[in-house]
Structures are given as structure tokens and as C-alpha cells.
Description:
Layout: E1 6-8, E2 14-21, E3 30-31, E4 37-42, E5 45-50, E6 56-60, E7 67-73, E8 78-83, E9 87-92, E10 98-103, E11 111-118, E12 123-129, E13 136-141, E14 148-155, E15 162-165, E16 172-177, E17 180-185, E18 191-195, E19 202-207, E20 213-218, E21 222-227, E22 237-241, E23 247-252, E24 258-263, E25 268-272, E26 277-281, E27 288-293, E28 300-304, E29 308-312, E30 318-323, E31 345-347, E32 352-356, E33 361-366, E34 371-377, E35 396-402, E36 408-415, E37 423-432, E38 437-445, E39 452-457, E40 468-473, E41 478-485, E42 498-506, E43 513-518, E44 525-529, E45 532-537, E46 542-547, E47 558-561, E48 569-574, E49 577-582, E50 587-592, E51 596-601, E52 608-612, E53 617-620, E54 629-631, E55 639-646, E56 661-667, E57 671-677, H1 695-698, H2 705-711, H3 735-743, H4 752-762, H5 773-784, H6 790-804, H7 831-841, H8 846-850
Antiparallel strand pairs: 1-2, 2-57, 3-4, 4-5, 5-6, 7-8, 8-9, 9-10, 11-12, 12-13, 13-14, 15-16, 16-17, 17-18, 19-20, 20-21, 21-22, 23-24, 24-25, 25-26, 27-28, 28-29, 29-30, 31-32, 32-33, 33-34, 35-36, 36-37, 37-38, 39-40, 40-41, 41-42, 43-44, 44-45, 45-46, 47-48, 48-49, 49-50, 51-52, 52-53, ...
Amino acid sequence: MAETNTHVCDVDGLVMKRKGGGSIVSLPPVFSSDSRILYVAWGNSVRAYSTQTGSVLFEFGGISSRCSSLQLLLESDSLAACSEKGEVIFWDCSSAVIQEKRVLELPDAGKITGCHIFGREKDIFIVLWKEQQKFQQLLRFKSSCKDFDEIKVKLNNSQSSFAVGGQENSQYVGTIYKCNVYAVNLRNGKIVRLFVHSERRYTCIAAHKSDHILAVGGIDGCITIWRGFFEQGTPPRSVYHWHTLPVNAICFSETGTSLFSGGGECVMVRWLLEYQEKNFLPRMGSPISHLAVSPGNQLVAASMADNSIQLISPRLTIEKVIQNFTWNVNIGSKETHSMGINKMRFDPRTKSLVLNGLSGHLQFFSAYTNSLLYNLDVVGQNFLTQERNRTIYNTEVVHVAFSCNGNWMATVEVRKDPDFSLESRLKFWRFNEEKQNFGLNTCIESPHIGEICALEMKPGTEDFYQLMAVTSGEDEKFKIWTLMDSSTVREGKGESGEVWHCESVGVYKGLPSGDVGFSSDGSILGAAFAYTLTLWVPDANELKSSLTHPDYHQNIRKLQFGSGDCCHLTVILLPECIIVWNIFSLTMTWAVPIEVSILTADPFSSHMAVFTCSGDLIVFKPSEPQPVLIKPTLSENKILLAAFVPLTKSRSDLMQWQHKSQLYFMNEYQELLVLESQDNDSKEAGHGEAVQGNLSEKSDLNLTPFGLLLAGVKHISNVKPVIPSDYSCDGIPGKEKIDELLRMPAHTMPPLHSICYRFLTSLIKKIGNNSKDEESDAEMEEDENMDDKDSESGSENSVKHERDKSDPDKINLQDKSENCKVVRPKVESTPELEAHLQEVFNESSKWVKAL
């Protein structure tokens, strides 16, 4: 599958769209020439962020696979990007319009991990990586994009293995491979090998923008700087050392007098090379992945491992933070969630998806606004950075569950250090209406002996006596937790409140316990013990029945009760099979041999969805073995989590299984994806083609509603305007203008006398959409002299009144202004009505000017 924002999956018209997430730190960011814009690679597109506000200005699209490099060409004021499959696109920076597009003919099967465009001929240097190859290659393509020359140097299998420096006539490329450093002159092809007799392996490299200077970071935390390496003799070098962990990123300042470095210590170091001094910016929250300096040294952009970009001032203070989907640093972006939650949950209170965020945190992501709401600190511990000779383990959240309306949340956190005993805690949180956040209610240390396998909360009720949670652990037990009044527990201590406690424990024949789940109404508790499904009455903890098939003696990995018309069915996942049991008749309904990695159910319909180990998506109803939808090889990337999210309103234009809910799923790049109809594939920012427009126009997006009113800025919309009828008036006139005024804080309002006149005149309805502002001003000037002409107008109107009596169905009242006519609906005319209307039109409007 091509890594695109929108990808056509099959002939059924469904497309896969990216709704959120994804990496903004996969490549070093690039500043604009005036430092006002930061260009960031986001999957197969490039986003332009404002360095002043941190918001997205516009987006560059047109690439069908992921970006592998990003470069600003100052001589042509264009932005260039290269994809992993060899697409090179040049955009105009001010309009995001594609100027030129090239396609490189890559040798064999390879993936581009880096690219640089050189010279006015736009020769292209690429770093090519091939599978099962221990090093990368450096190739130079001519402008024809067909012929290429291979430069005989090897590179590490990392994105930070090469750097380009020097001025236009003396540019060079620096590369690293294990303990070796190479410098390649791009003009004459001369290759210089810089070598130190040591076992120091290099991790990243940076090149000076004007001089022949290379800075190389090592795995031991040292930074080595070489100068004048193209000259005769041994080039001088110097070593700078502060980092204890491997150096991840280094970057020269614009003038080259300073050097910035960062690594796993979560600290950025600024080195003053001439004086060998260093300054620090500590406690940045997560390890540093990339560094970039703006022109004029105005800002430093630090790409962090938690998928954020911090903009740092020359005073080493954090000015802005650009945050996308938050990543767990310990889990990593492309590792399995063995230490993360195994289910993507839906919070019914905030209508958001809940999954792992920062280390020890949960992040709440709104699926309706496609925005990150907040991160909740569950663990309450400082993030521990790694050490050079040992691995430091942080406490991580592995399970989360919510009550039916989101008033209660249960979490399980674990710290697995092989050198110490296991730490696990079960916490219950209650939502605080005043603080609008979850507050810790109960904390249970080591609720099970060993790890906790599953956590679920009883659906369908929020009654005090019906609230219930169940956990299962490696101690071959499941435990039922209920809420009780703490005054009955702490008698004589003067304490009262609600706390959770273990009410009962369930075991079955000494078999290991596994997944647990409640039926849709909460009346049945299902617990997996090895290859047996047991059914219990949770209120009494009474075993009702056990289900085992003689042909399927594999441990149950996952169980899920059906809902709606399939509430009597239970779906069981085995390592190589799906089984459906009827809990009424206690018989197996059907079984299909298939390897499934994820199973999720729609609580608002009877449909379920599974993702196979090969990347297939299958949507089905437990009552029917025939699937509703099959998407073979939906994604080449591994799907980690999935969940159904209810729609704000039912949609009949989608497939039947999507009428009430939408399926969200997240791949190994932590991109949040959905399947939608191809007909409704709108060109949204981040999900379609580039947003085009002038940068100066986009800066006007920060205008307040008062600024829009006074400046006369018109909103541009793709919605077709509704032409008002002469015979009807729907809605309240001026409601939109009034709403704009009321939405603004009072302390930001300009003086009332400066806006009242224009505001009131904007509420006057005129005929025709082409009336000019000058005509409106002329009307108001004539209205100033209205009182002087009252007697004359009265005589004229009396003549009109006599004439209109002959045709009672027509009312033709004329304003004092000859350029503005007022059209009235055809109503039954009476002398009283005409007299009243004439009085209204003859009233003076000087009071408007006086205001």
C-alpha cells in the first residue's frame, strides 16, 4: 500500500484516510528564509507551521509515499522533497503549487532514506538502502533522473549518516560508517577518509554551511570536529565531551561559531566553539532526535522523541511547542505495544479515543475535531532517562477501562525490571466536575500475584451498587471489584467516602486465567481459562456453565460478547481460529481457521471487525459466518490498535456497518486511519491535496471578528451561497454579526463609538448583491437631511397613496435615495398598514450617526 493520506482500497468505493497521528519528527524540520515558517514532513505530505503561533498554515501534497528528505532552495524560493520511492517534487513556497516533478529510476529494489539537490542543474544525491544490506549507498543522479553515478563510500543504516555543507562552489558531503568518516567534494569527486584509531562508533554528523568543518557525534557521547580536511596533511581535530548517552543530533549555527547537540539525556547543549564553553537547556521531557537552526540564529527547532517539536530562543528558553500525536518514548513508534495498552478505548464523556501518551500518561484524542485534548498523568512519577551501561525501566500504563458514561476510569500500571520484583497497581479514578479532570479515588498495590492479563468495567449502569470492574492475572484468578462506603471499612477513623475493594475471586480447575468480558447488559461475565470459556453471574460470582470444544484445545487469546441482535453470541479468538459460541443453547455456531491479531466490536450495532496478521480487514456479524466486508492487504504496516467510534448522527450514505459508528485503527507509525466512502472524500487539510493560497492572505487568519468587521474582510467558502427570496425572510437579520461580537472577550473590544455606526449599517438589508459601499454612504448622507424635507415628502406620499388605491395588491414605496429600492412582499394592502409603513420610512436616522 502506498503511504498516502487517501488511498483507494477496492472497487466498493471505500478509501483509507488519515485522521490524525503520524510522525512530525521523522526528518529534521526546515526553516523558511525569514524564520516565520517551519516546514515539517508529515508522512507523504509537508506541513507549514507558524513559528509565532505554532498552528498549521497550509500543506504541501502530491507525493504518493513517505517523505525521506526536505530541503529549501533559496535561489528559486521553492521547497523540495523526495519520497522513499524516488519521487522528487518542487513546490512554490508562497502558493504550495507544484512547480516540477521528477521520478528517479532506482536500481533494483531499494528505499531512499536521504536526498540533497545540488547546483543550478539540480543534480540529486540520494542515500539508498536495500534490505539485508548492512550499509547504505550514496548515488548521484543527473537532471535526466535516469543515469546515476555511485560514490564509493559506505553509510550507516540511519537517517543521520550524511550531511551537506560548504558554499555553492565548494559544497561537500560528509558521511559516517561505523568508526570511519568520509568527506566527498561534490565538484571534483575527491574522497577524504577521516579516521581515528579507536573503537568509537559514530551516530550522527553535521556540516558547516560555509567552511570545510565536520562535526561527528559518537556512541560514547563525544563530539569530534575536523577542519580543513581537503587540504594537504593531517586535518586538525578537537573533541568535546559532555553527553553520557549516544549523541542523537548535532547542528551548526548559521555563522558556525556555535554547535548544538542533544541525546537521550533530554538536555540540549550549546557549545561556543571558540571559547570551548557550553550552556544547557535541561529537562526537555524526552530524548532529542533532530536539531535545526533558523537563519540569523533566531530559533532552534528540536524534534523530540515524543513526537513534538520545541522552538527554542537564543536565550535557551522554550518559546513554542508543536505537538501532534504524543508518543511513548519507551514503547517506540514502530514496536509492538507489549508495554502499552492492548485496547484503544473510547471515553464516553469527552467523546475521545484513549491510548498511551507520554511515558506513564494516557492521551485523549478527539475523533470529531481531530485534535489532541490533553494528557493525563496516571503514574505520577518523573521520567527516568537511560544510562550508558544499563537499561532504566519506567512505569507504564498497560490497561484502561471506563464506566458507561465515563464517570469512572480504571487503570493498571506496571514496572517490569528483571532485576527487581514486579510492580503493579490498580487505580480507580473519578471524574471531578469542578476541575473537569479525573482524580484518583483508590489505589491497590499488587492486585494480583504476577502481571494483570485483562481489565474490564461492567456496562449499562452507573448505580452505586451496580458499579463493577473485573481483572484477571497470572495467579490463575479473576477478581471482581465493587464500590463501597469507606466508613464501613475505616470505623472509628472519622473517614468517609467511596472506595473500591475486592468483593470476590473466581477460579476454575487450576487453569491459567486469560481475557475477561461482560455481556452487553452486564448480566453475564465471561472469563477465559486456558482453552475453556466460563460463564458467571457477576453479582453472585456463580459459575453457570463452561464451554470447551474437543477439536480446539488452544488457549483463548481474546473473547468478545456480541451486542444488539447478536447479544447471545460470544466470539472467541484462538491462535489460529475464530469460534462463535451461543451462550443460550451452549453450542458452537461456527468456526473459521484464520490468524487474527486484533478483534474489536461496535457497541452500537451487531458488527465486529478483525485485522489478520497479514494485514487484512474483515467486518462481520457473529450470527453469520459470511463477512460483510473483506479488505485484503489493507495495510502493509502492522495494525496495532482499533476501536469503533459512534457518529454524531447516523449516516445512510455509508455502508450499512458504518451507519452508526466509524472504525478507527492505528498502524505502527501511530497514524490514526479510517475507511470512508470515496464520494465523500473531501479535500481537507491533512487528508487531500495541498491547500493553495498566498502566504500573506493566510496571515490574515489571525484577525479577530472585530478586525474582520472593520476591515471588511470577506470569508471565502466552498459552500454555494443561498440567494434570498424577495417574498420570505428566514432567520434573524444580523444574527451572525451579533454572534461574532458576543464571542469576543470584553477586554479585547475596541471603543464602542468606533464600531457601532458600521455595525448597525451592516444590518440594513438592501436589494441586490452588487450594491457598493459608496451607495450606502450616500444613503446615510441623505438621511441626515431627512428632517428638513418631512413636509415635502409628506405631500408626495399622499399623491402616491391615492395612486396605489387603484391597485391594492401592489405597494410601491420609494426611499429618499434614488439608487436604493426596497421590494416588499405582495400582501393585502390596507390604509392603516400603508400609513404605518410610511411613518417608519420617514423616521430620521440621525440617532445612528449620533451613536
